[in-house]
Amino acid sequence: MIKAIIFDIDGVLLDSFEANLKFFQDLMIKTGYRPPTREEFPAIFHLSMMDAIKVLTKSAPEEEIKKIWEIGRGCEVGYDVGLPKTPEGAEEVIEKLSKSYLLGIVTSRIKESVYESSKLAKLEKYFKVAVSYQDTINHKPHPEPLFFAAQKLEVKSEECVYIGDVENDIKAARAAGIKVIIYSKNKFDQADACTSSFTKLPELILSLAQENTDNVIWVDENDNELGTISREKAHREGILHRIAVIYLTRKNGDILVQERMSGRLDHSSAGHVDVGEDYLQSAKRELKEELDIESDLTELGKTISNEVEPEAGKNRIRHIFKIFECEAEPGNLAKDEVKSVFWANPKTIYEEMKNDISNQKFCGGFKDSLKFFLEKKKLI
């Protein structure tokens, strides 16, 4: 599940080539070194200021490099903040993404220059974190800056997408286990996606997020994670994986039963736990998607289901269920998933299940989880 989008600045959020070229030319002239030509500058454009100085001074003594870096960091050499430009449609794209994801920045810029451009400063309100040169010991293509950004955003690295523009961004993202989209006129086969249009980023991010939903978390009998596999493989080979189950209840003890589009009866709400999710996140997502409910949930426990499913080619499907309960009334039903719902006495439903040997009326997993539910409630 994708939860966060992390952006580079130079070449992505800002077209800063002209401003950066002028800055380094002025810095080298002031400190007595040959300034870079326009033809030479692309090779150092994406380096940190410290690394760029090392290249331009041909690795002068460390003390000299640091002295020049401090001059560049201070106000002795001006930076034309009016030259950098944001991509066309940038503000609309960033605002749109901020409504669905946490946004962050990872850049080789020094901290003082992250938002010095007025055009980027205008977008600062959308970004939760900004990791700059001084924040880490190692820098791109090392993954440390991306790991640090994920930590500050309180997400796992695999729940992020990084938007960069050069090969070093791909190397850093791969080392961090992060999907990467390259925003550039050049194509990079190693990236997960490439685009020269900033406005296409939401579409590409959504596509990467949907790829994740085809995978499930493979676990052992004690619910220890063993890896990720495709849902189709898990069902075909009977590999144990996670499901979040929710029972909606009323004060009189009734439960909500869902009729699936196939006509078979199932839990109030249930669904696979996606890669990057925990059980509770999955349960709340399924409840909102299927029944339009947002509610606190009470955890009842776990049980394992091992039932033959007609809808899965009569394969034996193995799920580990974590079961939740809440008192709530259904809202709008998901048109493509839920045919209808009704309230029923759970013991009555359980007795009916005993006559459904081949699981034609009830979903097999529903039988196992309802038995657990009734036992937990001390009703059987």
From TrEMBL:
SUPFAM superfamilies: HAD-like (SSF56784), Nudix (SSF55811)
One Pfam family in the UniProt entry: HAD_2
Positions of the Nudix hydrolase domain: 239-367
GO molecular function: phosphoglycolate phosphatase activity
Residue ranges of coiled coil: none
GO biological process: DNA repair
InterPro entries on file: HAD-like_hydrolase_sf, HAD-like_sf, HAD-SF_hydro_IA, HAD_2, HAD_sf, NUDIX_hydrolase-like_dom_sf, NUDIX_hydrolase_dom, PGP-like_dom2
Protein name per its UniProtKB record: Nudix hydrolase domain-containing protein
Organism of this sequence: Candidatus Niyogibacteria bacterium RIFCSPLOWO2_12_FULL_41_13
Lineage: Bacteria, Candidatus Niyogiibacteriota
